[in-house]
Amino acid sequence: MRGLVAQRSGGPLTGMRVAVTGEGPALRHAARLLAAAGATVLPAPDDDVDGVLDATGTGHDGAVVRTEDTSAAGDWAASGALALTGRRDGPPLAAPGIPASAARGALLATELLARIAGSPVTLPGAEVLSERAALAGLRRDAPRSAGGALRLLRTADGWLGVNVARASDAELLPAWLEAPVPLDDPWPMLAELVAERAAAPLAERARLLGLPVGAHPAPADEQLAARGQTAPVSPLVLNGEVRRAVGGGGYEPRRRAWTLEPTLVVDLSSLWAGPLCGHLLTLLGARVIKVESTHRPDGARYGSAAFYDLLHGGQESVALDFGTPEGRTALAGLVGAADIVIEGSRPRALRQLGVVAEDVLANARAGCWVSITAYGRTGPWDNAVGFGDDAAIAGGLVAFDRDTGTPAPCGDAIADPLTGVHAAFAAVACRLGGGTWLADLALREQAAATVCAAPAEPAAEVTPVPRRPERPAPALGEHTAAVLHELGLA
Asked: At 273, which helix (H) or strand (E)?
């Protein structure tokens, strides 16, 4: 592996020197992430490195994460996502890229940062991609998603991933297609109505209505162009700049010590991507306070209890009525007290509550705001709706059964856990680096950043054993009074 540095100077890891030994896709992805965030990445350690991600047995005595060099196919199988991709009665399918390797690489890079900061933590691996399905009993069922809410429908020039995850989505279907659609079983009529129409205009109309739909194939579009995400797409956007790694000797700034101060995380997110980020930060020793609306709590509370407990065990729960001045004041106080904020709302939703990320950071001495949206918080699609399955399809993660031509969503809502692990890396890198950072993670871009032309070689299907929660998640609002009193917000 050649040396790597950031294409742009000034990232949060500027001044860090690390070595990554090995040639597999997970290690290459980890190296690119570290370099994109500002670190100088060497192919072999020298006496001055801060830490080593080691797959070759270098014998380094300092901060080190020892791992194995694996293939894209091996990572895809070991993650459990292979078993979730394909027809129910057909073969499991390889992904068109390295999504599992990217997830594994992001987790390895995050673990290395923790080791450099003195925390001997071991994070989970790429099996985070399949844990929800394993704990909820989901199976592959192409052209449906594992969760069942999305189906891939053929259009005149490609495919549409239509996600009817909410009752409000079903209610929008007649307006979307300007035709009657039976809401009890809309799929036969949807398939008929989209079959002779082009995918891109249908996806555009769906975005305008707030319907989560992803088109495949998806050529470069106005949103990617507006965000500077010309090929290759990068998973890391910090303070409005797309961060990429390039080869070379690069910057050699003054060295510094790297420490992770005690960290307060306020998690406003829901479902999977943001909570996975919060869970990983919990494992790293952060204090995580999950904040929910008393009227609209996290919908994941009503799904798999084991999965919800896995992501939220060891955290605190605050519930607020955002419709009241007192609730909005408490929300602003919590956000202002946080070292890291995680949120998964479209920008205008928080603005309506009086919370603006840029204003919060402008008044902070140091802090990281992790923003998770479907297509990014900037650009013409900044308020578009999307979830893990449809955003992944829009990003190009669709597998095809060679025998039948059936398209298959890759894994289970795979853009969600891909975003969660990269959000955790960004949060830790920014917390280590100090200063104020806005990490802008788009579900679609996280998927697109893992797509490559080379098909993965075959691998045997694996069913990993999911982790089990060590403790239950707190009840809704269990810690509201105590937390607000402690922070002087009561």
From this structure: helix 273-283
Two structure tokens written together for 99:
């999504």
Burial class (CB in 10 A: 0-12, 13-18, 19+), 297: middle
The residue ranges of DSSP E strands in 374-435, in sequence order, are 398-400, 407-409
Q: Does residue 350 have a pLDDT over 70? A: yes
Which residues have C-beta within 8 Å of that of residue 5, sequence separation ≥ 6?
A: 35, 40, 41, 245, 246, 247, 248, 249, 250, 251
How long a stretch of residues is the chain? 490
| 457 touches 95 (CB < 8 A) | no
Question: Would you state the pLDDT for residue 218?
Answer: 81
Cβ contacts of 486 within 8 Å, gap of 6 or more: none
Element (H, E) at 428: helix 415-433
Indicate whether 219 pLDDT > 90.
no
What is the distance between the terminal CA atoms of the chain, rounded to a whole angstrom?
54
Instruction: Name the strands in the sheet holding 63-66, side by side, starting at the edge strand that comes first in the sequence.
Output: 63-66, 51-54, 17-21, 40-42, 4-6, 245-247
The residue whose two tokens read 């075959």 is 458
Q: How far, in Å, CA of 372 to CA of 156, rounded?
A: 32
On whether the CB atoms of residues 397 and 414 are closer than 8 A, the answer is yes
pLDDT, one tens digit per residue, over 262-301 is 999 999 999 999 999 999 999 999 999 999 999 999 999 9
Compute φ and ψ for 132, nearest 5 degrees: -60, -45
* pLDDT band at residue 60 using 50, 70 and 90 as cut-offs: confident
Confidence band of 235 (pLDDT split at 50, 70, 90):
very high
Task: Identify which of 183, 161, 165 has the alpha carbon closest to the alpha carbon of residue 173.
Answer: 183
pLDDT at 6: 85
Helix or strand or coil: residue 151?
strand
d(CA 427, CA 98): 23
Q: Which residues of 201-216 are buried (b: 16+ CB within 10 A; e: fewer)?
A: ebbbbbbeeebbbbbb
Q: To the nearest whole percent, how much of the chain has pLDDT over 90?
A: 87
